Amino acid sequence: xxxxxxxxxxxxxxxxxxxxxxxxxxxxxxxxxxxxxxxxxxxxxxxxxxxxxxxxxxxxxxxxxxxxxxxxxxxxxxxxxxxxxxxxxxxxxxxxxxxxxxxxxxxxxxxxxxxxxxxxxxxxxxxxxxxxxxxxxxxxxxxxxxxxxxxxxxxxxxxxxxxxx
Length: 165
Description:
Elements: H1 13-31, H2 37-49, H3 55-64, H4 71-83, E1 87-90, E2 95-98, E3 108-113, E4 119-123, H5 127-136, E5 145-149, H6 152-164
Parallel strand pairs: 3-5
Antiparallel strand pairs: 1-2, 3-4
Helix pairs in contact: 1-2, 2-4, 3-4
């Protein structure tokens, strides 16, 4: 699979959302699992935000849309989306983000901007981890890496601020 980073570069957001929803619908049909209206709406909320959202942020949006305000509604939908590879849980932020590569088996790495909070997903390219695991006789089944730093836009603002100061 070709490595790609999604999250910091400009793109057609409407196309991004609609293609991800279409992909999720097709994958659910293929896997014979229900893509209920609540599950679809939660994925849509994550896609529209294009950012990591906490479960209570999702719940507030669901409530505003008339789905109710009971936490299990949001948690069940988020759990389904994570289980089926349509979303990821960002441990560092205790939040969720739509998957940039739905339907593909991959080991994501998340780059979290400490300034603006944007999150970008890329693939880990686990070669160093695999080599270390092999040397220890360990078999890696799943990897998630989270890195914190500055996104390109915030780096630019930092540089301009430092130049002025």
